[in-house]
Design goal:
Length: 303
């Protein structure tokens, strides 16, 4: 709120010229606002030769937005624009997951939103990338990886990198990330202990192998539990082995998780001294991945 004073200039100028008296007015903050009326406390002092000769104190009722007295007080009412904060666009509007975001704002597109998987205080909410397009959307990106030696794919030195902080052999030697990836080529991983707060379904994307959606059975990636899973191919990246089925088992093996049919389909090998990170659309544990890809990578999403 701002005040501007249009005083009775002529009178006050005359007082000053004739008696050397000066008038000063102090406005105090609004006391009350009742039914459109604002009350302010006003103190008017008359000074002569720098000394206060007398002071008037009173409350003044003013109507918002109107001139109350001729040449006296103008009130400018500042009304902040009411802004609607869309869910997930600020830390304070963080949602539990990308899935929760969709239920609140169904038309959102893929991108970065604020989420708070563990609930409660939003002080530990963070930004995450949500895929709103694949297989109905609602997916939170938890891992983006590339390869240590894509050019010589079956060599021992090849592995995915970086890896999440899941429990594998201590000799696993690619870097561990606990920094959330904010896009599909931001090679990082969410703290693995947080994945389970997002859901149990897994979306695996890669530009060198088919995309899978896997539902948990007796096996579950986020629970790090070996057993059956039910996977569907949601996008074919290659025509190789079109007749072959999607994986049906999950195994949290020594150097990283494996999704298999009868043989390996995806192996997230994280050891550069042995093995290699199978991405085989035939599910045969062989080198049938797409070759000569720029920025070869993969991603895991949870919902
Ligand atoms: Ca929280
Ligand atoms: Ca390796």
């Amino acid at each position: 709120m701002a005040f501007s004073l249009k005083s009775k200039k002529t009178l006050f100028s005359l007082m000053k010229i004739l008696f050397g008296m000066e008038r000063s007015t102090v406005y105090f903050p609004v006391l009350e606002c009742v039914q459109g009326k604002l009350f302010v406390k006003v103190q008017v002092s008359w000074k002569m030769k720098g000394r206060v000769r007398y002071t008037e104190k009173h409350e003044r009722c003013i109507l918002t937005g109107f001139l109350q007295q001729q040449g006296c007080i103008y009130v400018e009412k500042v009304v902040p624009a009411k802004t609607f904060i869309s869910p997930g666009t600020t830390q304070s509007s963080a949602v539990p997951s990308c899935q929760a975001l969709v239920s609140q704002s169904p038309s959102l597109s893929s991108g970065v939103y604020w989420i708070d998987p563990d609930g409660g205080s939003q002080a530990n909410a963070f930004k995450a990338y949500c895929d709103m397009d694949t297989d109905g959307g609602d997916w939170t990106l938890v891992w983006s990886y590339t390869f240590t030696n894509y050019g010589d794919f079956m060599d021992k030195s090849n592995a995915i990198t970086p890896r999440p902080n899941w429990q594998v052999d201590p000799n696993a030697n690619v870097p561990i990330s606990t920094t959330l990836p904010l896009n599909e080529t931001d090679y990082n991983a969410m703290n693995f202990s947080q994945w389970k707060h997002l859901g149990r379904q897994v979306l695996i994307k890669s530009n060198i192998n088919n995309w899978l959606v896997c539902h948990p059975g007796t096996g579950s990636l986020v629970d790090w539990q070996r057993g059956n899973v039910s996977c569907q191919i949601v996008k074919r990246v290659t025509d190789t082995c079109k007749e072959r089925p999607a994986p049906s088992t999950f195994n949290p093996s020594r150097y990283g998780p494996i999704f298999s049919t009868t043989q390996l389909y995806y192996y997230f090998d994280c050891y550069t001294q042995d093995y290699w990170p199978t991405h085989d659309p035939c599910g045969s544990g062989q080198s049938n991945h797409v070759t000569n890809v720029v920025n070869p990578h993969g991603n895991i999403f949870i919902r």
